[in-house]
C-alpha cells in the first residue's frame, strides 16, 4: 500500500490510455476539436498523479485501483431531455464546454475523452426542466455545462449509472454558471458499479441575487473522490448544498466541499448526511472561505454521519477561513451509531429489526432528500435517490 509521504500514486493503465487510442477514436471530428483533445491529453501525460503528501488527497489511496484491463475509453449511452449536445462549430471553440477552476490529471483526461457533452442554456426570463442520464462503459467521462441567464429558472437532474461489477473509471465535470437573479436546482446522482473509481468535479458560480440548490448523492462505486466548489461572486447570492452518501462493503467516499463568499450579503447552508455499513469509509472536508469585503456573510455547515457497523468509519473536517468582519459563520459535526431507544420503540410496535433500522435510516436522510425536486415530470427523482441509497445499505442490487 502507498503510504503518506510518498510522492505519487500512479494507477496502472492499459493501452487504451494512449495518444494512439485517442487519435483513432476521434479521427472523424473537426480539426479544432481534435486539437483540443490532443492538448488535453498532453496535459494529462505531463501532470503528476495525486500525492498523499497533498492535504486533499492524503485520506484516499489510489493503490486499490488498476485499469490495465480497460480495453476502451468512452462509449456508453446518454439520454437527454431538455438538454443539448455542444455544437461542433469552430466559432464556438472557446465556449465548447465547462472549464475547471483548477485542472487535475482527471479533469484533463475528461476533456481528452469526453463524449455526448451536455449543454443546458436558459435564456433570460425563461424556465427549463432538464434531465441527463448516462450509462457508462468501461471508462466514461461525463461533461456538462449549465448556463442560466438573468432572472431565468431551471431544474436539472443528472444521473450516472453502471450496473456492472467490473473495474471501471468515471471522470466527470459539471460547471454551473448562474446569472443575476436566476434560480437553479441541480441534482447529481451517482449509482455506479461496485468496481468503479469515480473522480468528479462540480463547480458553480453565483452572480448577484441568484439562488442555487445543489443536491449531490453518491451511492455507488468502489472509490469516489468528489470536489464540490461554489463561488458566490454577486451580492445577495444564496446557496444550499445538500449531500447524501451511502456506503457498504469496502466503499470509500471522499468529498471535498469548498464554498467561497466573495461578495457582501451572501448566504450558504451546507448539510451532508452519510450512512455507512460494513467496512465502508467516508471523508468529508467542508471549507467555508469568506473573502475580504464579503461583509454580512451568513454561512453554516453541518456534517452528520450514521454508522451501521462497528467497522465503518466517517471523518468530518470542517474549516472556516474568514478574512473580514461582520459575518456570521458556524459549523457542526456528529457521528454515531443507531439510536437503540428508537430501534427498541419501533420494534415494540411490531416492526422487525431490519424494518426498524431502515425506517430510522430513511428518516436520517429525509431533510436533505426534501431538497430534491418532486412532482410533475421530475416526480421520480426523490424516490430514485432514496431507493439508490437504501439499496446500498440493504445489500441489494438496483433491480432487486
Key terms for this structure?
400 residues, 19 strands, 6 helices, alpha/beta, 10-stranded mixed beta sheet, disordered N terminus
Q: What this model shows, in words?
A:
The chain is α/β, with parallel strands linked by helices and 400 residues long. It has one domain. Helices cover 18% and strands 39% of the residues. It has helices at 19-25, 31-46, 105-113, 340-348, 353-369, 381-394, and strands at 77-81, 84-85, 118-122, 127-135, 139-140, 143-148, 153-161, 168-178, 183-191, 196-206, 211-218, 223-232, 238-247, 252-261, 267-276, 281-290, 298-307, 313-322, 328-337. Helix 2 runs antiparallel to helix 3, helix 4 (340-348) packs across helix 5 (353-369) and helix 5 (353-369) packs across helix 6 (381-394). It is globular, with a radius of gyration of 21 Å. Mean pLDDT is 90; it is low at 1-7.
Amino acid at each position: 500500500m502507498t503510504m503518506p509521504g510518498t510522492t505519487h500514486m500512479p494507477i496502472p493503465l492499459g493501452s487504451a490510455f494512449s495518444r494512439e487510442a485517442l487519435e483513432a477514436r476521434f479521427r472523424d471530428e473537426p480539426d479544432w476539436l481534435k486539437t483540443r483533445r490532443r492538448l488535453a491529453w498532453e496535459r494529462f501525460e505531463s501532470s503528476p498523479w495525486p500525492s498523499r503528501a497533498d492535504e486533499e488527497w492524503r485520506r484516499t489511496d489510489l493503490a486499490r485501483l488498476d485499469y490495465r484491463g480497460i480495453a476502451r475509453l468512452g462509449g456508453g449511452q446518454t439520454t437527454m431531455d431538455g438538454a443539448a449536445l455542444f455544437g461542433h462549430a469552430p466559432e464556438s471553440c472557446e465556449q465548447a464546454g465547462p472549464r475547471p477552476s483548477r485542472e487535475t490529471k482527471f479533469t484533463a483526461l475528461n476533456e481528452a475523452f469526453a463524449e455526448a457533452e451536455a449543454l443546458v442554456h436558459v435564456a433570460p426570463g425563461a424556465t427549463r426542466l432538464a434531465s441527463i442520464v448516462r450509462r457508462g462503459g468501461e471508462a466514461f467521462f461525463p461533461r456538462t455545462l449549465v448556463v442560466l441567464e438573468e432572472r431565468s429558472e431551471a431544474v436539472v437532474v443528472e444521473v450516472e449509472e453502471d450496473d456492472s461489477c467490473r473495474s471501471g473509471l468515471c471522470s466527470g465535470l459539471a460547471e454551473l454558471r448562474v446569472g443575476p437573479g436566476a434560480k437553479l436546482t441541480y441534482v447529481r446522482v451517482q449509482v455506479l458499479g461496485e468496481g468503479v473509481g469515480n473522480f468528479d468535479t462540480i463547480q458553480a458560480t453565483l452572480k448577484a441575487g441568484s439562488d442555487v440548490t445543489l443536491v449531490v448523492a453518491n451511492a455507488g462505486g468502489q472509490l469516489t473522490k468528489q470536489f464540490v466548489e461554489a463561488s458566490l461572486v454577486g451580492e445577495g447570492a444564496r446557496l444550499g448544498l445538500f449531500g447524501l452518501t451511502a456506503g457498504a462493503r469496502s466503499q470509500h467516499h471522499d468529498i471535498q466541499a469548498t464554498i467561497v463568499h466573495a461578495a457582501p450579503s451572501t448566504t450558504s447552508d451546507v448539510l451532508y448526511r452519510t450512512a455507512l455499513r460494513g467496512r465502508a469509509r467516508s471523508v468529508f472536508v467542508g471549507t467555508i472561505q469568506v473573502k475580504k469585503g464579503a461583509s454580512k456573510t451568513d454561512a453554516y455547515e453541518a456534517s452528520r454521519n450514521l454508522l451501521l457497523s462497528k467497522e465503518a468509519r466517517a471523518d468530518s473536517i470542517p474549516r472556516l477561513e474568514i478574512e473580514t468582519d461582520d459575518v456570521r459563520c458556524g459549523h457542526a459535526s456528529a457521528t454515531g451509531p443507531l439510536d437503540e431507544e428508537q430501534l427498541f420503540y419501533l420494534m415494540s410496535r411490531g416492526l422487525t429489526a431490519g424494518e426498524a433500522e431502515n425506517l430510522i435510516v430513511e428518516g436520517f436522510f429525509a431533510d436533505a432528500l426534501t431538497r430534491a425536486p418532486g412532482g410533475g415530470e421530475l416526480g421520480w427523482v426523490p424516490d430514485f435517490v432514496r431507493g439508490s441509497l437504501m439499496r446500498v445499505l440493504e445489500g441489494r442490487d438496483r433491480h432487486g
